[in-house]
Write a structure and sequence with these properties.
By secondary structure, the protein is α+β, with helices and mostly antiparallel strands. It contains nine helices and 13 strands. Strands 1, 4, 5, 8, 9, 10, 12 and 13 form an eight-stranded mixed β-sheet that branches. It has a five-stranded mixed β-sheet with strand order 3-2-11-6-7.
C-alpha cells in the first residue's frame, strides 16, 4: 500500500492532467460502471476518446473492464511534467521480438494472440502453478501510475500506466524465505513474433529479466495491464508487463509468461549478451556512462531535430528519495 506523503516525484493530479480531461475521465468512469452492470460489456469498450488526447477506446476482457470501473486514478504522479502523447509511446519503443527498429513493434505486434493468457509461477514459492491473467491480478485494485520511463539509449517518456502493485501479487503467491530473486520470462512464439525470425535473433530467446526480492516488493514496482486509460497495446507488452520506474526500460520486461522465485541471482538477457554495457541492476544513474555514450542527459519525447527536448537525467530517474535505501552501502559504479 502506498503512503501518500509529499515527495519530489508526487504532485496533484491536476498538475499533470488538464482539468477538462480529469473531469471527462471521472464522468466516463461513472458511466462505464453502469454500462458494464447493465449490459455485461467491458468497460474499456465504453470509453470516450479524450481520457487522454489522441487515445481511442479499445476492447478488453470483461474482467479488466470491471477492474477499470473501480480503478484508483492518479495513485502516483510526476511533478511538473507533461504526459507523452499516446502516439509516441505506442510507436517508438523497443520490443525486439517484433523487430529491431523502433517502429517494428507497432507494425508487427497486431499478430500476437493475448487471450487466453497463462502465467506459470514456480520456484521457491508456496503457491506454484499456472494462473490465468485474471486469476493473477484481479484480486487487487487497478491503479493508475504516471511514471517517468528512461531508456538506456538516453531517450525518455512520461507514461500513465494501469496496473496492480507487484508487492501484493507476490504476497499472494507466498514466496518462501529462501526466495531472494524474482525472475520474469517473456513469451516466445516465433510464428507471431516476426523479430524472432530475423537476423537480429542473436538473442537467446526467451527474453529474461529479474529483480531482487526487495526491489520487486517496493511500492513503486508495478505489473501493468493497461496504459492511457485503456487496455495495454500489444507493442507495449500486452497483456502483462513489469514497470520499474527507477531502472532503465529494458528491466521492465513485456508479455510475461513465467514468474520464478529463486535463491540465486539469475542470468538476464542483456547482462548475458553484453555485461560490460548492461548490468543486473540497471538503475538510472547519470554518473555512470554507457561505454558508448553518456547517461548524464536524455532526450524527452516528443522532440525534433531543431527542438530535441534534451534535459538532465535524474538519479534513479527522479525516484531517489523513494528507492535509494535499497542500495545503501553498494558501489553503484560497479553494481550498475
Amino acid at each position: 500500500m502506498l503512503i501518500k506523503t509529499p515527495r519530489r516525484s508526487d504532485c496533484l493530479e491536476s498538475e499533470v492532467t488538464p482539468e477538462a480531461i480529469y473531469l471527462n475521465r471521472r464522468r466516463f468512469m461513472q458511466g462505464a460502471a453502469l454500462s458494464t452492470a447493465a449490459f455485461g460489456l467491458p468497460a474499456m469498450a465504453q470509453a470516450e476518446a479524450g481520457i487522454y488526447p489522441g487515445v481511442d477506446a479499445a476492447d478488453g476482457p470483461a474482467w479488466l473492464g470491471k477492474m477499470l470501473s473501480q480503478a484508483r486514478w492518479g495513485a502516483v504522479t510526476v511533478e511538473g511534467e507533461d504526459v507523452t502523447p499516446y502516439a509516441d509511446a505506442t510507436h517508438y519503443n523497443n520490443f525486439y521480438e517484433f523487430g529491431p527498429d523502433k517502429g517494428d513493434p507497432a507494425r508487427n505486434a497486431h499478430k500476437l494472440t493475448t487471450e487466453p493468457w497463462v502465467v506459470t509461477v514456480d520456484g521457491e514459492v508456496g503457491k506454484p502453478g499456472q494462473y490465468s491473467l485474471e486469476d493473477l491480478v484481479s484480486e487487487s485494485m487497478l491503479e493508475e501510475r504516471i511514471y517517468r520511463l528512461r531508456c538506456v539509449e538516453a531517450w525518455s517518456m512520461v507514461i500513465p500506466w494501469l496496473g496492480v502493485p507487484l508487492a501484493g501479487l507476490i504476497s499472494r503467491l507466498q514466496p518462501t524465505s529462501s526466495a531472494k530473486f524474482v525472475r520474469f520470462e517473456t513469451l516466445s512464439r516465433p510464428d507471431e513474433m516476426a523479430g524472432m525470425r530475423t537476423g537480429f535473433s542473436l538473442i537467446d530467446w526467451p527474453y529474461v529479466e529479474a529483480l531482487r526480492i526487495d526491489e520487486a516488493m517496493h511500492p513503486l514496482s508495478l505489473m501493468a495491464v493497461g496504459m492511457y486509460g485503456r487496455v495495454l497495446p500489444n507493442q507495449n507488452g500486452a497483456p502483462l508487463r513489469l514497470v520499474v520506474p527507477w531502472k532503465y526500460g529494458f528491466k521492465s520486461i513485456k508479455s510475461i509468461v513465467r514468474i520464478s522465485f529463486l535463491q540465486e541471482q539469475p542470468a538476464t538477457t542483456w547482462e548475458t549478451m553484453a555485461p560490460q554495457e548492461y548490468g543486473f541492476y540497471a538503475n538510472v544513474n547519470p554518473k555512470v556512462s554507457h561505454p558508448r555514450w553518456s547517461q548524464a542527459r536524455e532526450r524527452r519525447l516528443p522532440g525534433s531535430l531543431f527542438s530535441p527536448n534534451v534535459r538532465e537525467t535524474l538519479m534513479f530517474n527522479g525516484y531517489e528519495e523513494e528507492v535509494s535505501t535499497l542500495y545503501a552501502g553498494m558501489d553503484l559504479s560497479k553494481d550498475y
